[in-house]
Amino acid sequence: MAPYESDDSRGAEEADGRYSARRKAARYGVPVAVVGVAAATIGLVPALADSGDPDLPKITAQQLIEKIAKSDVQRLSGTVRISTDLGLPNLGGLESGLASGAVKDGSGSSADPASKLTELASGTHTLRVAADGQDRQKVSLIESAAEYSLIHNGKDVWGYDSKSDEVYHGTAAQDGKKGKDEAPVTPKDFADEILKSVDDTTSVTVGGTAQVAGRDAYRLVVKPKQASGTTVGAISIAVDSTTGLPLKFTLTPAGGGAAVVDAGFTRISFAEPAAATFDFTPPKGAKVTEGEDAGAGEHARTPGAPRKDASPLEGLAAGGDGMKVLGKGWNSIAVFDTGAKGGIPSSSGDGALGGFLGSLGDQVSGEFGKGTVFSTRLVNALITDDGKAYVGTVTKDVLVKAADAGR
């Protein structure tokens, strides 16, 4: 009974309908915290939970998916530990230098969540989270000598960086969806990105039980049916047995080794947070940047678009222009124009910066011409000399073949 192999066809139709409204094309970028895979249908391989600790009633993958979908946790508070290991090169402070330069030249604020939360793309971080319904949430990134907080309270979104004493103020999306300044930070955020992208190229099973933050949980295991070509090994989602809330998310690469993303609660409470948790008033003397003013002046441009003089890397990070998706499921590849011609400078040309950028990637060639592949343990990107970018959770060889086919 493909692609939804189950003896409960009615339940399958309900589950498919529940998720169809949530599916959308995945957004690609380097570096990333997690990448969804574009999909059209849900395909589940049913399996009963193995015996484990704790001892919970048996459940099928279909039932566990539906339990997540029905989860309606509105109030919680707790601590999340997130570790990300994409295998990015050590840039020796170059990233922070570029970020601080952007702030100094007026093109941004250190409190802007769009840039601040990209710190989660590497290393291990501790977050304090709280939620009280759809209109009030708070995430605090705890650093060694400072704290960054992102607060959503009603129509307002506030970002505060205690280290620089800067404040960012924006407006929340009114449709209940995540805004452009929000990034996945909780296990549920990551799980949603994956589950809305499950298709008939995917195996979904129940892989036993676990205890997370003192809660009994089932382990939902999501992985490609055919591993050839993809960099994704498997995804494990620990699901609270009572509430259906994802408590832990772990993504391991096909190449083995440590998890690429490991995000989970270390402490959680479902009690109502104090109302004062979501109150925020800019400290006296703090610099406040309004969201609509962040790109004013000579730096003004359409949000998400690269500058006219953007390098290929900046065009890639901005998402490029006219993105289309090639392939299906875990081997999907996003293709777009970076807005910059000339590709990535080789290690022998265009000065020290050109040599440095070129040294980070591998020079490749094919029927498409020449280009540079930038690799992580999960996402790989090929930027051709004519400015096109091919990005996906696939191997370098798959990217080159895609570029040859699309020349």
Task: Identify low-pLDDT runs.
Answer: 1-52, 91-107, 293-320
Mean pLDDT: 75
Give helix % range: 10-25%
Number of individual domains: 2
Structural class comes to alpha+beta
Give a concise summary:
With 407 residues, the chain is of the alpha+beta class. It has 2 domains: 9-278, Lipoprotein localisation LolA/LolB/LppX (outer membrane lipoprotein receptor (LolB), chain A), CATH 2.50.20.10; 304-405, 2-Layer Sandwich (TATA-Binding Protein). 18% of the residues lie in helices and 32% in strands.
SSE topology sketch:
Blueprint: H1 9-20, H2 61-70, E1 75-84, H3 94-104, H4 113-116, E2 123-132, E3 136-142, E4 147-153, E5 156-161, E6 166-171, H5 187-195, E7 202-212, E8 215-224, E9 232-240, E10 246-253, E11 261-269, E12 287-290, H6 312-318, E13 321-326, E14 333-337, H7 351-360, E15 362-366, E16 369-375, E17 380-384, E18 388-392, H8 396-405
Parallel strand pairs: 6-12
Antiparallel strand pairs: 1-2, 1-11, 2-3, 3-4, 4-5, 5-6, 7-8, 8-9, 9-10, 10-11, 13-14, 14-18, 15-16, 16-17, 17-18
Helix pairs in contact: 1-2
